[in-house]
């Protein structure tokens, strides 16, 4: 026979967050999954009003009261909860009055959506990256082959021209062919074979830190926030330096070009390990997270969705290749680069699995 203790044990082992509210919308029960999701302890939730656990915009208190008074259930998708500590989470939740109980109580079942939304966004980013890479390879092949012919024909023509003043024109053809070939090579990214070796991420970041420190010349404050417990991993140190330098240099240029800034801007280098973390559709036991954060003007919404594509840049003098190359290098380490930006804070987040299983091209 099922006992009340058995039912309580079932609730406490559910992965779904469950809250039981009375008529005043005070919590009379909250299961461990809800405590984790809402970042509260059991003692704090005892008799707490629902607004002390989370608030929702627009305010859903009236809807919850109407549901319990009228006995109507409802479900809401991708609602944003603001927690007691200011953190925000995206959830699906349903509210259901419990039948046959007096005084009436309301059962709230909550499913977190942030992780699913993030995985979906990362899968889309990886798919777009792969599509772009295939497109660039195809385009590079179609451009470089005729370029070789044009350059060779210009050289032959130059040998036949007796009038030396006409060599200026053939040289223009040769130089422009070389410039276009170099541009295509840069779009393809590094063409050197990866040199795998045990890599300490802090050695990589220290090299970037020193280079930016010299280039910035006291116009930018650099802050380190490292977690020394992060283990070494197999990586190409030089390529990783290039990847992190591209991001850091963009941040430095954004800060130093702010004409209305009175104080030097800040760039923060932050490292943290993540356990049981998913990149795209693959779950990893241990992942390195690096945040490169600046307090510059931010990236416009119209640009941020495309910043990892080649030839996309927010600066007139920018080539638009740095972030594309960075994404390619991190991708070859089975990682991913994301960007979150708003005025006053731009955060490039780099994820790299700390596992010695690299499938390099």
TrEMBL record:
InterPro entries according to UniProt: HATPase_C_sf (IPR036890), HATPase_dom (IPR003594), His_kinase_dom (IPR005467), HisK_dim/P_dom (IPR003661), HisK_dim/P_sf (IPR036097), PAS (IPR000014), PAS-like_dom_sf (IPR035965), PAS_fold (IPR013767)
GO MF, any single term: hydrolase activity
Catalyzed reactions: ATP + protein L-histidine = ADP + protein N-phospho-L-histidine
CDD domains: HisKA, PAS
Entry annotated with the keyword Phosphoprotein: yes
Entry superkingdom: Bacteria
Domain Histidine kinase: 138-356
SMART domains in the cross-refs: HATPase_c, HisKA
The enzyme's E.C. designation: 2.7.13.3
Enzyme class: transferase
Pfam families per record: HATPase_c (PF02518), HisKA (PF00512), PAS (PF00989)
A GO biological process held by the record: regulation of DNA-templated transcription
Protein keywords: ATP-binding, Hydrolase, Kinase, Nitrogen fixation, Nucleotide-binding, Phosphoprotein, Transferase, Two-component regulatory system
Function: Member of the two-component regulatory system NtrB/NtrC, which controls expression of the nitrogen-regulated (ntr) genes in response to nitrogen limitation. Under conditions of nitrogen limitation, NtrB autophosphorylates and transfers the phosphoryl group to NtrC. In the presence of nitrogen, acts as a phosphatase that dephosphorylates and inactivates NtrC.
Name of the protein in question: Sensory histidine kinase/phosphatase NtrB
Organism of derivation: Alkalimarinus sediminis
């Amino acid at each position: 026979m099922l006992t009340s203790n058995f039912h309580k044990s079932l609730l406490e082992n559910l992965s779904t967050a469950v809250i039981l509210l009375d008529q005043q919308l005070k919590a009379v029960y909250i299961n461990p999954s809800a405590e984790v999701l809402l970042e509260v302890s059991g003692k704090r939730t005892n008799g707490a009003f629902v607004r002390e656990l989370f608030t929702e915009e627009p305010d859903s208190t009236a809807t919850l009261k109407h549901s319990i008074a009228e006995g109507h259930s409802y479900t809401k998708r991708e609602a944003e909860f603001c927690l007691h500590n200011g953190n925000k989470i995206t959830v699906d939740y349903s509210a259901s009055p419990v039948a046959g109980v007096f005084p009436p109580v309301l059962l709230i079942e909550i499913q977190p959506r942030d992780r699913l939304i993030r995985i979906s966004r990362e899968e889309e980013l990886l798919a777009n990256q792969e599509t772009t890479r295939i497109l660039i390879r195809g385009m590079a092949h179609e451009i470089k082959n005729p370029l070789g012919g044009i350059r060779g024909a210009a050289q032959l023509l130059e040998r036949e021209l007796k009038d030396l003043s006409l060599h200026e024109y053939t040289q223009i053809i040769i130089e422009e062919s070389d410039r276009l070939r170099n541009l295509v090579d840069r779009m393809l990214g590094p063409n050197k074979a990866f040199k795998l070796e045990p890599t300490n991420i802090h050695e990589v970041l220290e090299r970037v830190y020193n280079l930016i420190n010299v280039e910035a010349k006291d116009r930018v404050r650099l802050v380190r926030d490292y977690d020394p417990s992060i283990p070494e991993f197999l990586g190409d140190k030089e390529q990783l330096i290039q990847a992190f330098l591209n991001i850091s240099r963009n941040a430095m240029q954004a800060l130093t070009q702010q004409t209305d800034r009175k104080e030097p801007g800040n760039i923060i280098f932050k490292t943290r390990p993540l356990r049981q973390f998913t990149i795209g559709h693959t779950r990893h036991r241990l992942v390195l997270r690096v945040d490169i954060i600046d307090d510059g003007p931010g990236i416009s919404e119209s640009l941020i969705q495309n910043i990892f594509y080649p030839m996309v840049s927010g600066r007139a003098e920018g080539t638009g290749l740095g972030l594309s190359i960075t994404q390619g290098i991190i991708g070859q380490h089975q990682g991913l680069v994301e960007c979150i930006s708003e005025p006053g804070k731009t955060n490039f987040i780099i994820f790299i699995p700390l596992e010695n299983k690299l499938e390099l091209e």
